[in-house]
Amino acid sequence: MIESLTDTVLLNNEVRMPGFGLGVFQVSNEDTVLSVQKAIEAGYVSIDTAQIYGNEAGVGEGIRRGLASTGKKREELFITTKLWNHHLDYDQTITEFNDSLVKLGLDYLDLYLIHWPGNNEFLEPWTAMEDLYLSGKIKALGVSNFEIHHLKTLLETTRIKPVINQVELHPRMAQNEIRAFGKEHEILTEAWSPLMQGKLLEDDTILNLASKHNKSAAQIILRWHIQNDIIVIPKSVKEARIKSNAAIFDFELSKDDLAMIDQLDDGTRVGPNPDTFFFE
């Protein structure tokens, strides 16, 4: 379990990744600039974006401003983006990667993810990603929204095992089976939409625990992730909330607290089902 905003977890390729970061899903390019800058100034070192978000350029500018204002070096940050792998062959994957790198203003990525499995539309792009990894352009490779059967297919053919599976994960979609499979195969689990797009912030169980610990509902939920060894990337564009989301290392949920939150798991999604989302 991580114990600070900059604490890291060890990936299966010996690279270390922060266990807590900032996500920028559904954030405009303009708002992303300030969000990323303020996050870096608040001590965040991990930033997660994606090609399809349309804000990689904003992330890049936010990184530049954040580094300039804090004096940090690029090497102190951990930057993730994702490949929109719809109908991409090997060469197209290389092109899309390079385009993301240009928009971000970086010369390497810390983590590059296949965004969706689609109808098994990941095998050829993964081969290209492996070669980019072997050339030193990417520090670690991972996947997003993969079910267990997608992971099995990839593991049967891959030269390089994914280090991360980033999935929708929150107390109402705890992903216990995927987490167990990942642990068995040294693939860490990372949560997107950890707050269920805000839908859990008024839940009675969460609010009662927030009152008990004198914390916000969001802090209770994010602490649940941390104590379950789940990498988490909450989104916010407001500086106060960016700071508040990270203020979760001065308290601990008890076993009974965790059990109460665990009981909320009913498999409810707010995002697409990976088995039926085959791109558009």
Automatic annotation (TrEMBL):
<dbReference type="Pfam" id="PF00248">
    <property type="entry name" value="Aldo_ket_red"/>
</dbReference>
<dbReference type="InterPro" id="IPR023210">
    <property type="entry name" value="NADP_OxRdtase_dom"/>
</dbReference>
<feature type="domain" description="NADP-dependent oxidoreductase">
    <location>
        <begin position="26"/>
        <end position="265"/>
    </location>
</feature>
<keyword id="KW-0521">NADP</keyword>
<dbReference type="InterPro" id="IPR018170">
    <property type="entry name" value="Aldo/ket_reductase_CS"/>
</dbReference>
<comment type="similarity">
    <text>Belongs to the aldo/keto reductase family.</text>
</comment>
<feature type="active site" description="Proton donor">
    <location>
        <position position="53"/>
    </location>
</feature>
<keyword id="KW-0560">Oxidoreductase</keyword>
<dbReference type="GO" id="GO:0016616">
    <property type="term" value="F:oxidoreductase activity, acting on the CH-OH group of donors, NAD or NADP as acceptor"/>
</dbReference>
<feature type="site" description="Lowers pKa of active site Tyr">
    <location>
        <position position="82"/>
    </location>
</feature>
<feature type="binding site">
    <location>
        <position position="115"/>
    </location>
    <ligand>
        <name>substrate</name>
    </ligand>
</feature>
<dbReference type="InterPro" id="IPR036812">
    <property type="entry name" value="NAD(P)_OxRdtase_dom_sf"/>
</dbReference>
<dbReference type="InterPro" id="IPR020471">
    <property type="entry name" value="AKR"/>
</dbReference>
<protein>
    <submittedName>
        <fullName>Aldo/keto reductase</fullName>
    </submittedName>
</protein>
